[in-house]
Amino acid sequence: MNKKTAPILLSFLLLSQLLVFGQSADSVAVLNKEWKIIPIKKGVTWKQGHFEKLFGSQQEINLVEIDLKKHRKNIHLAADPKELKKTSEFATEAGALVAINGGFFDMKNGGSWDYVKVDNHVVNTTKKKTDRANAILLIDKKAIEIQPDSAVNYEQSSKPNILLSGPLLIHRGQDAALANNPFNTNRHPRSAVAITRKNKLIFLVVDGRNNQAAGMNLSELTQTLRWLGAKHAMNVDGGGSSTLYVKGATANGVVNHPSDNKQFDHEGQRPVANIIYLKE
């Protein structure tokens, strides 16, 4: 090493150390995770990971990555205007390969709490606007989009498939502002949909309400999605509703651990009003 190259090498080493120390232990845990990876079909991959210490607690994450270059035209919504059904039931009826629970619903009267349109048919209008539902998922054969609800006149949109839910988590690579309220700041099971910088659609479920899975608040969920490469992301209904379905993966297709039966198994699904799915 000569006198000219030594300072350059030293500067590079110092910069490398700063970058390493600048990463949190949580981001390193997610980025370096040896996920259990199961290919579902070409361009569709299921990943499962258990973390002994992520955000200071045990976490269980299941996600499906869908290559939109190959499968954009096969992403759909399924919904019922009044009847609540388990995610696996919706998925089976729709011929889904993979599915995730959708938006918030009316537990007393059934149907979605927020606006849903499926194949150009309005299934439910918004019963009462809330700050929570501030994100729009728009689906047609040309594109899958996640937008702030303020950016889209969704009731007048020509898009054939629309789901209003939220809160919005990431938009154009930037974290969305989250209100300081118990829904956002307390830990719960969570479901989210994201579009990555590599044009992949992610269905992600975080388990919770169990000593093997603490669940996440929305800030933690946002960080996790950002580390997974999300450019756009939105929360959907969580808690006991959080369900990820992969056809044939288990007896009922559920791969996470829905919490409604208070058991860490695949049986505790809560009936929901709608799902987002990839048709087989």
Automatic annotation (TrEMBL):
Pfam families: NAGPA
N-terminal signal peptide: 1-25
GO molecular function: hydrolase activity, acting on glycosyl bonds
Phosphodiester glycosidase domain boundaries: 95-278
Keywords carried by this UniProt record: Glycosidase, Hydrolase, Signal
InterPro entries, alphabetized: NAGPA
Name by which UniProt lists this protein: Phosphodiester glycosidase family protein
Native organism: Olivibacter oleidegradans
